[in-house]
Design brief:
Helices cover 35% and strands 21% of the residues. The protein is of the alpha+beta class. It is elongated and about 50 Å long. The protein starts with a strand and ends in a 12-residue tail after the last helix.
């Protein structure tokens, strides 16, 4: 189930004042149905980082303390009344990425495969990850 909140509403709890011109964000989260085994956490974190290079909206996040994987996306808008078409498309994309990638992530999270094996397998299937290089 996808959950949605407006995290900017939390800023008032910390004494921050909001301006009418401030951008509002809708945060959508979709938790995975499985958790990460301790033996697979480093490989899972690396795999999530790699897969995040393929997601144009949102990213996978690994909770260090509970081993929970969540797909999270943020939608900026001028007001809380986001257009329904925008919200529906964001929900579709959130579900799409979770559906497509969780079956790839789970064997690594369970310690059954390594990140390298998974990325090599994806490369054989024609999936090319964008490369990231250090700035010089």
């Amino acid at each position: 189930m996808v959950h949605g909140i407006f995290p900017d509403e939390l800023s008032g709890a910390f004494g921050a004042e909001r301006s009418p011109d401030d951008i509002v964000f809708l945060q959508l989260t979709l938790p995975s149905p499985f958790t990460v085994e301790a033996t697979g956490s480093a490989d899972t974190a690396l795999l999530l980082h790699s897969l995040n290079l393929l997601t144009p909206i949102g990213q996978f996040i690994l909770s260090d303390d509970k081993g929970l994987i969540v797909f999270r996306s943020m939608l900026p808008h001028q007001a809380h009344n986001l257009p329904s078409t925008l919200v529906v498309e964001a929900l579709r994309m959130t579900r799409f990425f979770a559906t497509e990638f969780l079956s790839i992530i789970e064997p690594v999270a369970q310690g059954l495969k390594t990140c390298r094996d998974t990325l090599d397998e994806l490369a054989r299937q024609g999936v090319r990850l964008p490369t990231v290089t250090a700035a010089r």
